[in-house]
Specification:
The complex is a heterotrimer of chains A (619), B (127) and C (159). With 619 residues, chain A is an alpha/beta fold. Helices cover 38% and strands 16% of the residues of chain A. Chain A is globular. Chain B has a single domain (27-121), classed as 3-Layer(aba) Sandwich (Glutaredoxin). Chain B has helices spanning 6-20, 37-41, 44-58, 97-109; strands at 29-34, 63-68, 80-84, 90-92, 118-121. In chain B, helix 3 crosses helix 4. The termini of chain B are far apart. Chain C is built from 7 helices and 4 strands. A 4-stranded mixed sheet of chain C has the order 2-1-3-4, covered by helices on one side. The chains are: A alpha/beta (619), B alpha+beta (127), C alpha+beta (159). Chains in contact: A-B, A-C, B-C. Chains B and C meet through helix 2 of B and loops of C.
Chain lengths: 619, 127, 159
């Protein structure tokens, strides 16, 4: 178990002569007395070079520097710093210059709310060196699983931890493992689903790129638990760096005998091969993915039978997502009790979200389940840039929905885990698998796309539907034809030719597609449309009846003109719009106001983007 | 390479710690350049090249350089972490080759954090 | 068709039917497309119907039956890129190169594709040219990107 804190007591010649070893002894005594020996490690180091103020001690990871310590200072120091959590100021070294204004990582909201389990090694290790992973206690969970646990105990531990599939559906991982273990048929297979197709989600890529061995170790533990000899990592074609790094990692694990026969003399045989996706979104669906691994078209098939009974090559197959696998080693290492105390009643542990779109701090964040949207968007994300108004957040990719900010002050009913009902704001809704489904969206793989007042919800719905329509494999009629009909209607609406009958038809067809499609792609494809109609009906109506796009995104409904005053006074008629206009529809001379000829304008909007002075007005 | 036994794993771990962790004597300074896809897209490889150039020009031998994956805050890439023995690691963001040069002069050689380019000190909460 | 190259690719994937997709990926990488004679050769050697190879080649987005251009340009149209105006970037490339999405310039220098999500949403909008990735692309940056590769091509032509 890694220690929470390391106390680095200097044992250089200077400090030893200042009795630093007595300080160390007092420290160890006090730590034992307080029962902290599991959490705090005392290490003696070589000379720090700052002998003048010895004996010294550095407390990591915070880098707190204590000076001129005596054994008498220790009880106070332990009480203040390790029990109360506030470094003992009066024992610290204060540099002669002004105190540093740089905040600590733990004070910066973006990092403060995060808790890294799946991403525990991010930014710390060289992903192309297996030794770096081993140095951070890598493969120790495997050792534990091989030497001190039976396969049944491993499955029990994973089940009790409450870990659920991080690919989106949230199926309990331990239950799945048990099914595969108990299924008849040999050999059994393990698959890591790295076909991260949801636009706006990139946690799987990042795990492969920054810590590939965590996935391999998770799969090895899974192999021991279910009795598999062969595993497949399926990785998206668009991720060349992730592919390269997982391949290097597998090769290094083989060289060390961590993959292959008789791993660590335990009798476990297991190896992993890599399959590259070939660019089909539907292959993220497990039956389509298996077809693709077998070298066939990525067509999904009806379930049951589930892959746990009839999977790769017709054999029992355990298929889990990248992030799920990366969570396995810490759970085995620290136990189900440790893991299940993080999160909510129904959703345990942490979830990695990619926070993107119209938000200040974009990036990848790992937070405990149950965090609220408000914390994610405002505390971690830093809010919306440019003083714009927050409009909605889209979760779950093309299968998910849009949760509106308009609901912010309109409480909804939230059923607490104990069955109590209470009113809550949407934004204060603790995020877990169920709560997102309750509001018509879903967890999905964890993409969170933030949208502001300049985002048109009808356009967003059309965008997602164009996506799923294009990616529909065509095997079943409702998905193939239904998404096409819906897209035609949406295209009409954004071009200003929609009718209110269209809107009704959209809801009706959407319902049918949801109910009758074969696989998850079709069953969820209407979600973005249906949630936007539900929460942003007025925007649809504005497009249909007033022929206006309130966010001024749908070009066919916009008109463009140049404000002559801004153009001349601020821009001095710079002419960049005139040069960039693809239709040559802008006229004007240097230092003169420019003008758009509406007869020539094709409404592409390039002039808006290129003008440095915001002189182009969209109406 | 002979196959690993369980005891070997502990030995490799200890060895690897000695060569990667400053407090175990790996060096005086450790620099990590974050090279995930976003880091590279934002110019991370040029930052890496600049770091190596500085090392060579200044003839520094007690500085460890390593790469790592994404640090999570994509909007502030390229990013690097500088850790001086006995001090908390410092994350530098929005880097350019010029800033790398200044950080070398001030922090890595001079021992004073180049505050204007630093995002934060310390580490993230893992596990 | 270079028989030795194709045979090498087939052997590398165990000459098994199940390796067909992987073989097609390597061939695509080698030629920037799947030439008809290569597909015919593959179907004979592996004893699979040509229609099966053709169905894979047209189902998966990674494959092309026409040459793709020396500098394949992919404009990301993922959600984050979409809400940050990626469509205008794509249109700018179309105008500058004089081709539509999915086409290749007549001199085979550039191909233009849209791609679903490159997973660099933090840097949206994003464009890749071959192995190079560009983040926070604007309409005006498009010219610079194209210019860089045109320069490479003229330098290449001179040598």
């Amino acid at each position: 178990m890694p220690y929470r804190v390391h106390c680095m007591v200097c044992a250089g010649t200077g400090c030893v002569s200042n009795r630093s070893l007595d300080v160390r002894e007092a420290l160890e005594r006090e730590i034992r007395k307080r029962g902290l020996q599991e959490e705090i490690q005392v290490v003696t180091t070589g000379c720090n070079g700052f002998c003048a103020v010895g004996p010294l001690m550095v407390v990591q990871p915070d880098g707190i520097f204590y000076q001129q310590l005596t054994p008498k200072d220790i009880p106070y120091l332990v009480e203040e710093h390790f029990i109360k959590g506030r470094p003992a100021q009066k024992l610290m070294y204060t540099p002669p210059e002004a105190p540093s204004p740089i905040p600590r990582m733990s004070d910066i909201p973006f990092f403060k709310h995060q808790r890294l389990i799946a991403l525990r090694n991010r930014g710390l290790i060289d992903p192309e060196k297996i030794e770096d992973y081993i140095a951070r206690d890598g493969y120790q969970a495997l050792v534990k699983a091989l030497t001190r646990m039976t396969p049944e105990q491993i499955i029990e531990e994973i089940t009790r931890s409450g870990l659920r599939g991080r690919g989106g559906a949230g199926f309990p991982t331990g239950v799945k493992w048990r099914k595969v273990r108990e299924a008849s048929g040999e050999p059994k297979y393990i698959i890591c689903n790295g076909d991260e197709g949801d636009p706006g989600a990139f946690m799987d890529r990042s795990i492969f790129e920054s810590d590939p061995h965590s996935v391999i170790e998770g799969m090895l533990i899974g192999a021991r638990a279910i009795g598999a000899r062969h595993g497949v990592v399926y990785i998206r074609n668009e991720y060349p760096l992730a592919l390269e790094r997982i391949q290097i990692a597998i090769q290094q694990a083989r060289e060390y005998g961590l993959l292959g026969e008789n791993i660590l003399d335990s009798g476990l045989d297991f190896d992993i091969s890599v399959t590259r996706g070939a660019g089909a979104f539907v292959c993220g669906e497990e039956t389509a993915l298996i077809a693709s691994v077998e070298g066939r078209l990525g067509d999904p098939r009806a379930r049951p039978p589930y892959p746990s009974e009839y999977g790769l090559w017709g054999k029992p197959t355990c298929i889990n997502n990248v992030e799920t696998w990366a969570n396995v080693p810490p759970i085995i290492m620290h136990g189900a009790d440790w893991y299940s105390q993080i999160g909510t009643e129904r959703s345990k542990g942490t979830k990695v979200f990619s926070l993107v779109g119209k938000v200040r701090n974009t990036g990848l964040v790992e937070v405990p389940m149950g965090i609220t949207l408000r914390e994610l968007i405002y505390d971690i994300g830093g809010g919306i840039p440019g003083d714009k108004k927050f409009k909605a957040v889209q979760t779950g990719g093309p299968s998910g929905g849009c949760i509106p900010a308009g609901m912010m002050d309109q409480p909804i009913e939230y059923v607490a885990p104990d069955g109590k009902r209470e009113a809550r704001d949407y934004l204060d809704l603790p995020i877990d698998y169920e709560s997102l489904t309750d509001v018509g969206s879903m967890m999905g793989s964890g993409g969170l796309v933030v949208m502001d007042e300049d985002t048109c919800m009808v356009d967003v719905a059309r965008y997602f539907l164009a996506f799923t329509q294009d990616e529909s494999c065509g095997a079943c009629t409702p998905c193939r034809e239904g998404t096409k009909l819906m897209l035609d209607i949406l295209n009409r609406i954004v071009e200003g030719h929609g009718t209110m009958d269209d809107l009704r038809a959209l809801e009706e067809i959407g319902w049918v597609v949801k109910q009758t499609s074969l696989c998850g792609l079709g069953k969820t494809a209407p979600n973005p449309v249906l949630t936007t109609i539900k929460y942003f009906r007025d925007e649809y109506v504005a497009h249909i009846e007033a022929h206006k796009c309130p966010a001024r995104v749908c070009r066919e409904l916009n008109t463009y003109r140049i404000d002559p005053v801004i153009c001349v006074e601020r821009g001095h008629g710079c002419g960049v719009c005139r040069r960039e206009c693809p239709e040559k529809a802008i006229f004007g001379e240097k230092n003169q106001p420019h003008r758009i000829d509406p007869a020539l304008c094709k409404k592409c909007g390039v002039c808006v983007d290129v003008c440095h002075f915001n002189a182009v007005i969209v109406e | 390479m002979p196959k690993l036994k369980i005891e070997d794993l502990a030995r490799i771990r200890d060895q690897a710690r000695r060569s990667t962790l400053l407090r175990e004597g790996a060096g005086r300074v450790k620099i990590i350049v974050h090279l995930g896809t976003c880091g590279i897209a934002a110019g991370g490889r040029n930052i890496m090249a600049a770091v190596l150039r500085e090392l060579e020009e200044r003839n520094l031998e007690d500085v460890l350089v390593s790469t790592s994956g994404c640090a999570g805050l994509c909007s502030r890439e390229p990013m690097m972490t500088v850790e001086v023995l006995g001090q908390a690691p410092v994350k530098y963001v929005d880097l350019t080759e010029g800033k790398v040069r200044e950080i070398f002069a001030e922090h890595i050689v001079g021992g004073r954090i180049a505050e204007r380019y630093a995002l934060a000190v310390g580490s993230e909460r893992a596990m | 068709m270079e028989l030795a190259t194709i045979e090498g690719i087939i052997r590398q994937h165990g000459a098994q039917k199940s390796g067909l997709i992987a073989m097609l990926q390597d061939i695509q990488h080698e030629y920037t497309y799947l030439p008809e004679d290569v597909l015919r050769h593959l179907s004979r050697t592996l004893n699979v119907p040509l229609s099966r190879a053709y169905s894979l080649a047209t189902f998966y987005r990674a494959f092309s039956l026409k040459p793709k251009g020396r500098h394949p340009i992919s404009v990301c149209l993922g959600t984050a890129c979409h809400v940050k105006g990626a469509v205008k970037i794509l249109e700018k490339f179309e105008r500058e190169l004089g081709i539509k999405t999915g086409q290749t310039t007549p001199d085979l220098n550039f191909g233009l594709e849209q791609v679903r999500c490159l997973g660099c949403c933090g840097l949206a909008p994003v464009v890749t040219v071959g192995q190079d990735l560009y983040g926070k692309v604007t309409v005006t940056k498009v010219d610079q990107i194209i210019k860089r590769y045109r320069k490479q091509e003229t330098a290449h032509a001179k040598t």
